[in-house]
Write a structure and sequence with these properties.
The complex is a heterodimer of chains A (337) and B (335). By secondary structure, chain A is mainly alpha-helical. Helices cover 76% and strands 0% of the residues of chain A. Chain A contains 14 helices and no strands. Chain B is α/β, with parallel strands linked by helices and 335 residues long. In chain B, β4 and β5 form a beta hairpin. Classes of the chains: A mainly alpha (337), B alpha/beta (335).
């Protein structure tokens, strides 16, 4: 586990990103709809004006040429102008990224801190009522569509019980005067010593995070349960019992450390899939993050933004896998990267 | 005499409920271990030798359960102890090593941690204060690894089990088991997974430590050669029952049960070079719904009609018993 290995991972990114950009470019080119027409909307323009707009956006060039222009610019970290915002794509994305990262991290933490204890308990009480409920709950968690479950939660907690807000990250009035040190609201509010704002931000994030994390929770719980069942049969658990160790120590130290090895790999991959889930969840909950931005950009055929955002997703995904590899070696001393 | 008895098991019956019926893995087993002795338990796979001592440790796993019997350790009936007290006794008074150290040691924890947790759990002499406690645990760990012959122990505590050779892992497991200075060590097949040369070293080590620490040892094995060299007494098990027991030298010189004779005849010996090894014909009976008859009946070369009912243990000479009706005790040996 060294620097060379890290470089190797970075180099592996090159073909991945190249492939991803080709696919996205082709798909966007094949999608019906014309960004210029969408921008014009109901306004009346002359054919000359329309041709001028097309030239300005570079859309008068053939697709292949556009692709290589994009590639050349991307290599210099220039992702072009957002058609819609008329600002550099990178700037628009960076503005929205913290909200998405915050939501994803909270969803992941919720998933980890509920799934692992529940999975361990389900394994220890195998075939008990608890185990059965967990199994059915797990199945539901994987199968329920996020947009439907999210709306259900909104109806219950926001509309009927009126306990939590319906949309957004924070109430506008409350967010005033908070210095954005990190752009993560949960952290910034605390750094500013604004506990009222922190509570408000927490109330906003809780429903989308639960909805986003639900499938991951369900899957991780199943993986943890299966891994624990296997590990609890191992000789080293018997030997640990023969040593007269406490049940807690055997469970959480001897068994779980081994059971976490498969769980961590799955957790990393599932965190990647949270990025995809974001697009739906952010739309349902009006969360001002990157996911919603990408959905909106697809609707208006904002090619440069979609292209750059998908590349970013690919980078994050590969990095998560790399991170999983590192964790794997920490948990499993038999493996050396 | 009874003061000398450390462990006494009477009428132990351990069963496993399976789909095809109840498997009686241990059926009416009596074991006596006296202080300081080394008792060998011999039998093939499935004879119930490991389950007997898993029962003693209170480590029979579901679907298995102890159905009857008394397990008295130093005057206490272990079956009547609460789970908490049993946990406190495990490791501290009765320690166990397992057949394969590679699977018995936790692959994800360092050897040092696995030793330290044993001391944490059972060593009452450790200082209370954190720093001093850690230093004492470190010192005791080094001492234990050195005792079992692992060089540069201080550095090796930080290593994981897979970084050691097979023989070393076995010694580490023994070091862990003995770290609490138990009064009884149950060594389940301590040498089966090892090379012959390492086998001898590990057995020597157990014998040496037994003498130094004054503990009793139960050596579970299927190797009569190991028993002959290291055990004071031997118990031969077959299909969940004890079929013969007595002082090792006499049992080996003059086995009374046909099964013991069969076992001895199936060992290759230099003196019998050139002659074929004589295995015991047939197979261990299915332990589900055993008929009420001698369990060795189908494989016994000497069986007759009289063997078709339940057979008890019969006296077979001084301090000897065997589960066979055909025992002729020589006049000279009658107690």
């Amino acid at each position: 586990m060294t620097f060379t290995r890290f470089l190797e991972r970075l180099l592996q990114l090159i073909p991945v990103l190249l492939g991803v950009s080709v696919i996205v470019f082709v798909m966007m080119a094949l999608t019906p709809g014309d960004p210029v027409q969408i921008m014009i909307g109901d306004q009346i323009v002359t054919p000359e004006q329309e041709a001028q707009m097309r030239r300005d956006l570079g859309l008068d060039r053939p697709v292949v040429e556009r692709f290589f222009v994009f590639l050349g610019n991307a290599l210099q970290f220039d992702f072009g102008q957002s058609f819609y915002h008329r600002r550099p794509v990178a700037e628009v994305i960076l503005e929205r990224l913290p909200a998405t990262i915050e939501l994803t991290v909270v969803a992941m933490l919720i998933a980890l801190f509920t799934a692992i204890p529940l999975g361990v308990l389900a394994a220890v009480r195998k075939n008990s009522i608890f185990d059965r409920i967990a199994t059915v709950g797990g199945l539901l968690g994987v199968s329920l569509p996020g947009f439907w479950f999210g709306i259900l939660l909104l109806m219950l907690f926001a509309v009927h019980l009126n306990l939590l807000p319906v949309a957004g990250r924070i109430n506008y009035g409350i967010s005033q005067g908070i210095t954005p040190y990190t752009h993560f609201l949960l952290i910034d509010t605390l750094l500013n010593g604004r506990f009222d704002a922190f509570r408000n931000a927490l109330a906003h994030i809780i429903l989308p995070a639960i909805t986003l994390g639900l499938p991951m929770t369900a899957i991780l719980m199943r993986v943890t349960r299966t891994a624990m069942l296997e590990v609890l049969r191992a000789d080293y658990v018997t030997f640990a019992q023969a040593k007269g160790l406490s049940r807690q120590r055997i469970l959480w130290r001897h068994a779980l450390k081994n059971a976490l090895i498969p769980t961590v790999s799955v957790a990393a991959i599932e965190t990647g899939s949270l990025l995809g889930g974001n697009m739906i969840i952010e739309t349902v909950f009006g969360w001002p993050g990157l996911g919603r931005l990408v959905v909106e950009s697809i609707f208006v055929r904002n090619y440069p933004l979609v292209q750059a955002a998908v590349l970013l997703y690919a980078v994050i995904y590969v990095m998560l896998n790399f991170f999983a590899d590192i964790l794997y070696t920490i948990l499993n001393p038999r493996v050396k990267l | 005499m009874s003061d000398d008895i450390l462990l006494e098991v009477r009428g132990l019956r351990t069963v496993f409920d399976t789909r095809s019926g109840q498997v009686c893995a241990v059926d009416g087993v009596d074991v006596t271990v006296t202080r300081g002795e080394c008792l060998g338990i011999v039998g093939e796979s499935g004879s119930g030798k490991s389950v007997t001592f898993a029962s003693v440790m209170g480590l029979v796993r579901s679907p298995g359960r102890i159905e009857a019997g008394e397990i008295v350790f130093d005057g206490t009936d272990l079956r009547k102890l609460s789970p908490r007290k049993m946990q406190a006794l495990r490791g501290r008074d009765i320690a166990m090593t397992m057949q394969d150290a590679l699977t018995a040691l936790n692959p994800a924890l360092t050897v040092g941690e696995q030793l330290a947790e044993m001391l944490e759990a059972h060593d009452d002499d450790l200082p209370r204060r954190r720093g001093a406690r850690r230093a004492a645990i470190q010192a005791r760990s080094v001492e234990m690894l050195t005792l079992v012959g692992i060089p540069s122990a201080g550095d090796r505590l930080r290593q994981y089990p897979h970084e050691f050779s097979g023989g070393m892992r076995q010694r580490i497991m023994i070091a862990i088991a003995l770290a609490s200075k138990p009064r009884l060590l149950i060594a389940d097949e301590p040498t089966t997974a090892l090379d012959v040369t390492i086998q001898a070293q590990v057995l020597e080590l157990i014998s040496k430590l037994r003498a130094e620490l004054g503990m009793s040892v139960v050596l579970i094995t299927h190797d009569l050669g190991v028993v002959a060299e290291h055990c004071d007494r031997v118990m031969v098990m077959y299909a969940g029952q004890v079929v013969e027991e007595g002082p090792t030298a006499r049992v080996i010189r003059d086995p009374r049960h046909p099964y013991t004779r069969g076992l001895l005849a199936s060992i290759p010996r230099p003196a019998l070079r050139g002659q074929p090894i004589r295995p015991i014909d047939g197979q261990v009976p299915d332990l589900v719904d055993l008929p009420p008859q001698c369990r060795f009946l189908d494989r016994c070369p000497e069986a007759g009609e009289a063997c078709r009912h339940l057979i008890d243990m019969h006296p077979a000479g001084p301090a000897r018993r065997a589960r066979c009706i055909r025992i002729a005790v020589p006049e000279t040996e009658k107690a």
